[in-house]
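re the bet — no i am not wrong, look at it urself. input seq straight from the record:
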Amino acid sequence: RGAPRVTGAGPRRAWRGRPAEFGELHGVGREMPKGGKSGKSRDGGGAGGDTLACGLKVLAPIPLAAAIIGKGGSSIAKMRSNCKARLSLTEHGDFYPSTDSRILTAQTQDEEHMEEVIRELVAKVAEVAQADSNGIEADLRLKVLVPRAASGGIIGKGGANVKEIRERTNAKISIADTCGSGPGSDQLISISGTEEALHIVLTEVSKQVQALTEEPWFATWVRTNSATSGSSGYGGILTSTGGPPGGNHSYGDYSRTTGVDTLTRVAHSLPPYVMEDSRGFALSCVVPQRLVGGLIGRAGSGIKEVQNLTGTRIGIRDIPDDPDNCSMNIAGPLANTCAAYMLMMRRYIDAEYQASEGR
């Protein structure tokens, strides 16, 4: 049996004017809403709901994540209560690329309560380090994710700020290259030193992050995470998840994974600048004329349902000089467009089956 032929997909430039014609490569008729990956989280206090005023992200290696959660979630519940904070961790097994660390996201209504989160978090780091030290004193280590726009304030002109913090605390501070090109792209800061030093440095870092809370991209940065499934790496998917557009990416082997697993892994690996591209995307495919009625549904109910579920625009129109086929066109944000295509393919297969049964 025949299958629908995908004839083209790609970014579309946002355009304000007459409603765009489906099939055009430019202009979707309206500015597409931005959409990013709201990372799945567990242990309560997930990414859902309104974003609170202040936000901070920290990498939590497996022992630290376990200490933060506590038996039956008791520790994280206590932290939330004490700090009046929303705390969430990425799913077990969803790690920041090239690490075995889950991402802890903390949100509070003000900087005072964020300071309480920092105090309790550093205490947890010290607690885990002491349990693993076998009596040998060593520096505590912590890694923090900050938006790219915050790194300039942390570093200071000519490196003056970070130099002053290092001299004041004797902490070791390293700032990795940014992952992505936008102001809300993640940048990793590694800190090591005494418990007091960690507290001071993390407080200074948090101040620079909270200074950006009024930026329009800040709430998306708080809700978005770049964790991927699989331990100590990329889980067999992208080996570069956050480079700027047009960068070189190396792709893993998907041949041994199921289709749904592959889809999930790819979606989780995409950096925010891809999922948040404001131009929107368009995807077109060719479908048999005889199945169009089943795709559209009675009085257009099928297409309307998919459009409402996904926030996309779907059109089916004749192809000149091809009476046996039609063009189906879907436009919207990248993830929404892919979701709508999948739902329409379900309708396609159902319509094909019903046609074969003579219904």
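see?? Residues 334-356 form the longest helix (23 residues). told u. also Confidence is low (pLDDT under 50) at residues 8-48, 230-257. so pay up
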